Amino acid sequence: MEPVKDHLKENLTVLFVGFNPSLRSGETGHHFANPNNRFWTILHRAGLTERRFRPEEDADLLSIGYGLTNIVARPTKSAQEITKEEYNKGRLELKKKIAAYQPQVVCFVGKGVYQQYSGRKEAAWGMQPASVVPGVLDFVAPSSSGLVRMRMEDIVAIYKELSLFIRKLQSKQKEE
User: Fold this and answer.
1) Which pLDDT tens digit goes with each residue over 77-98?
2) pLDDT digits (tens, 9 = 90+) for 145-164
3) How far apart are CA 121 and CA 86, in angstroms?
4) Quick check: helix, strand or coil at residue 135?
5) Mapping DSSP to helix (H, G, I), strand (E, B) and coil, where does residue 106 land?
C-alpha cells in the first residue's frame, strides 16, 4: 500500500497533521477516508469549511489555505501499530516540512500526534504556549477517529476555537 500524498504549499493558513493514514486511506489515496472518521464533518461543523468535503476532495483544501500531512506515512489499521522508529523518523521529516512550507498554524489532529512531534508529555487542547518551529503556531485538537470517546459536540467546540482564531488572524492581516 502506498503512502497517501501530502497536500502542501507555502504559506498555508492551517496544516492539519494526523497520526498516519488508515488502511482505507491507503487504498483510496485520500486523507481521512475511513467512513468512521469524522474529520470532514468536524471541519464543516466547526466553521472551518463552508460545506462538508469528501475524502476524494482532500486536495481541494489547498484552494482555501489548508494542507494535509501525517507524522507517519505508512497506512495501518490503528495508530498503535506505529513503531518508535517510525515516529522518530516522522518527527524529523515533519519538522522539515513545517519549516520549509511555513504554515501560519499547524493543527495536530490528536493530542498523541502533537506529543510525538513535540516530545512534550503534557499538552492542553488548543493553541500551545510555545511553538516547536519558530514562527509557526501549534494547535492541538482531538483526533477525528471514530474510536475517540469524546462527545462530538466537545470535539467540534475545540475546532471552533481554531476557526475563530483563523478569522481573527485574517481580519488582522486585512487591516495591515
Assistant:
1) 888 899 999 999 999 999 999 9
2) 888 889 999 999 999 999 99
3) 18
4) coil
5) strand
Hunting for cell 496544516 — which residue is that? 15
Pairing of strands 126-127, 14-18: unpaired
The rounded distance, in Å, linking the Cα atoms of 119 and 134 is 16
Domains along the chain with CATH numbers: 14-175 (3.40.470.10)
Q: Which three cell numbers stand for residue 97?
A: 516540512
pLDDT (0 to 100) of residue 47: 97
Please identify which residue in the block is written with the cell numbers 497506512. Answer: 75
- For 107, other C-beta atoms within 10 Å of its C-beta total 25
**Range list of H helices, 119-151:** none
Cell of 12: 498555508
